[in-house]
Amino acid sequence: MKRTLSAACALALLAFPAVSISPLLAQDSAENALPRGLQTGDEVPWIYRGSDVPQDKDWLFGELENGLRYAVRRNSVPPEQASIRIRIDAGSLHERDDEQGFAHLMEHLSFRESKYLGPAQAIPTWQRLGATFGSDTNAETSPTHTVYKLDLPGITPASLDESFKLLSGMIREPVLSQANVATEVPIVLAEKRERGGAGFRVDTKTRETLFAGQRLANRLPIGTEETLEAATGKALQEFHQRWYRPENTVIVVAGDADPVELARLVEKWFGDWQGTGPHVEAPDFGDPVAPAGADPANPLGEMAVVVEPDMPRALTYAIMRPWRPVNDTIVYNEGLLLDAIGQAIINRRLRSRARSGGSFLEAQVYQDDVSRSTDATFVTVIPLSNDWQTALADTRALIADALATPPTQEEIDREVAEFDVAFASELEQKAVLAGSKLADQIVQAVDIRETVAAPETVLNVFRGMSKRLNPQEVHARTKALFEGDVIRAVYVTPEATDGDVSALKLALSQEVKPDGTARLAAQAISFDDLPPIGEPGAITAEGELGITGIPEIEKVEFANGTRAILWANDAEPGRVTVKVRFGAGYRAFSPEDAPYVALGEMALVGAGLGELGQEELDRITTGRKMGFDFGIDEGSFTFTAQTRSADVSDQLYLFAAKLGMPRWDESPILRSKAAAGLAYDALSSSPGGVLNRDLDFLLRNRDPRFITPNPKMMAEATPEGFRKVWEPILKQGPVEVLVFGEFDRDEVVETLRRTFGALDPRTPIPASVAGWLPEFPDANGGPTVLNHRGDPNQAAAVIAWPSGGGIEGLRESRQLEILTQLFNNRLMDVMREKTGASYAPQVVSDWPRDLSGGGTIMALAQLRPEDVPVFFSEAEKIAADLSINPPDADELNRVTEPLRQLISRASTGNNFWLYQLEGASFDPRRVGLLRSLLVDYSQTSPEVMQLLATRYLTSRKPWQLAIIPEGQALATSLPAGRSSGSEVSGR
């Protein structure tokens, strides 16, 4: 029996009343006059002009007399939310030379102050309406557009109307004063600074080379320091008047409301908008052009060799063609699908060659229409050594074979099966596609000047072109992908002696002999032919898990100790989530096992199972929706997959076989060693890279299990050592299987009996391992200081306090999340809004549920080296202030309302319940704690926050970490004039 997981069911279980939809949002609007811009009847909607693609009837489209276009639809995923997107057809490619960065700066200024929002009031206002800043409230600027995004939860007629009002003020009438520009520019410069370093330099040189002669070559959305520092309110006003106009605007809304009412709101707040001054056409973005005298048969153009000591070798070349608008017809889309099939065949051959010991770690081809500037085919190669010429030649030889000889029908059929299952899955899951994703799809379609197609249309078009999916047509389209007006290339290397532009040009001009040895022969593999894992196990107990109101959530126990939690429901049609928890996680390793921890995350799945190596795994899952994600937590290991009802039984077999009959192929381990070695030095090239490399290790008092292995450690690791570490781990500790989604309950139970129930009894986790807890570092010796080799104006800082862990303190950890968000808001206010020292400081709480301790509260930011002491000082001030001056009702509401809405939305999906209930078959306390979850996250008091701040933030000296450039010393005092004073409460 299945049960639909409705919003009302979920919220009732969590002891919080569901918000009822107002009659205004649910009413039938047929009796009212339709909005004047709505395109109905035989009128072709604006997005489908010139196209024969069937219209997606779930969308309503409109176009106003002022030129503004909109698209609206009803969508109830998640319930009671509206996703609003406002796209302005202006990005960095629309900027004049002295305006570089203005499109992005305008995005910031629109949030800074506008007609209906006072200075710095946008974020708190949206928080009061339940939207989380950064996820529910955001914006993006690209070379071709600026998009404002709002996912508004808990919608009511009043909140929707208010939101459209506020958004209209932001878009139509931002306050572009000099004072606001002066406030926002440092924040943008902080954002720019965080993106700097070796990676940014490589991206910059790559962009300049590949798009030479086009506007895209030297116009990045972040802009330049010179143009940003010279920005004025008057100049921004001119930019706004030129591009922020109704004819350049598309508004998209997908929400749990009557779409006609959504259209009325669009027209109410934007219908009378008129642009200032004459309409301005977008500038010509330019075309890729070959140098004069280039060989038409091999039109080599601009080349660059970029030397960055900390970056791994990588080579990219591109065959470039002019981009032109198209009529988005069915025939055109069939051609794109043929292109995709051809690329998939080449990429599978490249992947096979890399796995079998090729000269490259990875190689790939892909076609992309880049920023309406070029239609290009890119080839990327990651050499295994400094012999990049051989890696490039081998890659080109495999591509040459694809151009010389048509693929086999078997190869085509294999890729067709992969595409078919992907498109079929999208159709199956159409009813549960989030409104935010639907809205984003329209925005993307507008950006590339194409239409939007319903999932059934995509599948029908694909299946309807079966006669075209033959070797001749695929071959013809593949050859066209490698024809173009100019070929450009960039080689990145850590060593200046590796080669120069002449060597790169020579390597690309040399003819290569087609290499057909990587063509994959058809070798049918069936799950029916695989060996059994063991004798089917006996079920020793089964019944309800014990959740009041949802008796369908079951627990099943097997004689070998395996336990399963099952919930068959149709909340997400066509989707099943499978998660397997086993063993002891990080606790299972010895300190000397460090390199094998990292290698396990990279290579354990690829090492195979039973009779299946990596290639066989790829083949047996062709045309199936299956996955195999592996993770290591502090208390357990996990296998996770998103699958579907037709494939869930075979998915369970794969997971169980990995535990019961693992395989130990060497190639994935050797390739992972090489990949880790190539990537290691790059981690030193920026503060963020050093954080990713060392933070977990340092926060756990330098426990070797959490270290990022250096090249020497990786070089000493062996396939034999890998097996010695991982083979006993796969046999150790209890196993819990969770299956949530749309599946046949009896069939899954029988599959579990034949798979996980058939495993040998597990080796117990030793008591010494079970009781392990990570240690918190000593904070009495002053800040820990690390160095990076990036830009001299980049730094990062971390301040952390120990907290706790375990189920017994779970309710307190939820209240601690509220405190963490209060801390985050105050830190954002000081470090970003008031001082402009950091673009996105953040505060996070980690409370391990499987351990009885080891949690942390941590604040971190990327900033300038001289601002590191400021960050430490302000964070400690905020911590102290929270323990002395409790937050008022408004400050609390700005945290608890978004948290309440976040949980309310998440609780309508299976993944939410799976995460909350994992481990519950062995620890029933997790079930009992479920009922208080929403209350714990959304209801508190100033006194509780003050108590928690005193307990966790001021009772112990915090640990501090500073990451500064090599050759610089950490400042020991605040720079002159940079103390923030007393404004730390955020009230």
From TrEMBL:
Q: Please name the InterPro entries in this protein's record.
A: Metalloenz_LuxS/M16 (IPR011249), Pept_M16_N (IPR011765), Peptidase_M16 (IPR050626), Peptidase_M16_C (IPR007863)
Q: In this protein, which residues make up the domain named Peptidase M16 C-terminal?
A: 232-417, 731-895
Taxonomy, superkingdom: Bacteria
Keyword hit for Hydrolase: yes
What keywords were assigned to this record?
Hydrolase, Metalloprotease, Protease, Signal, Zinc
Limits of the Peptidase M16 N-terminal domain: 74-191
Signal peptide interval? 1-26
What family name appears in the similarity comment? Answer: Belongs to the peptidase M16 family.
Q: What is this protein called?
A: Insulinase family protein
Q: What is the lineage of its organism?
A: Bacteria, Pseudomonadati, Pseudomonadota, Alphaproteobacteria, Sphingomonadales
